[in-house]
């Protein structure tokens, strides 16, 4: 087991992807009018790609079009003082022709109340890293 300088377990790419597949909520970090912005999102993995569902024309959909974004998800138990955190960086892209129908079948939680056309953001996980906290 590899530890970082703070004594946290360093996770492999495979471990990071496995952990991401266990939680439905994460945070996407993007640029909004030249400033950093963070938004909680529902997501699912599609292979190694992160799929986020939002509404067409939303600030998130517009700001992430063909942009480099960061994505983070985690799980912590405050009582046991254990948990993990995974961060991915990659290019957000538009859905390819024929891909939307397949992605619509993924069980992706949404944060909007109602209405609006589904829009999918796909983030290619070019870099991924994670740490686990153990007692």
Q: Your description of this structure?
A:
The protein is built from 3 helices and 8 strands, in the order E-H-E-E-E-H-E-E-H-E-E. Strands 2-3-4-7-6-5 form a 6-stranded antiparallel beta barrel. Helices cover 13% and strands 49% of the residues. It has 135 residues and is mainly beta. The protein has one domain: Roll (Pnp Oxidase, Chain A), CATH 2.30.110.10. The model has no long low-confidence stretch (mean pLDDT 89). Strand 5 and strand 6 form a beta hairpin. The radius of gyration is 16 Å and the shape is globular.
Based on CA atoms alone, the radius of gyration comes out at 16 Å
What structural class do helix, strand and pairing data support? mainly beta
Shape: globular
Q: What strand line-up does the widest sheet have? A: 2-3-4-7-6-5
For the structure shown, list the relevant keywords.
mainly beta; single chain
Structure, briefly:
The protein is mainly β and about 140 residues long. The chain has three helices and eight strands, in the order E-H-E-E-E-H-E-E-H-E-E. Helices cover about 15% and strands about 50% of the residues.
What topology does this entry show?
Elements: E1 9-11, H1 13-20, E2 25-32, E3 35-46, E4 49-55, H2 59-63, E5 68-77, E6 82-93, H3 100-104, E7 118-124, E8 127-133
Antiparallel strand pairs: 1-8, 2-3, 2-5, 3-4, 4-7, 5-6, 6-7, 6-8
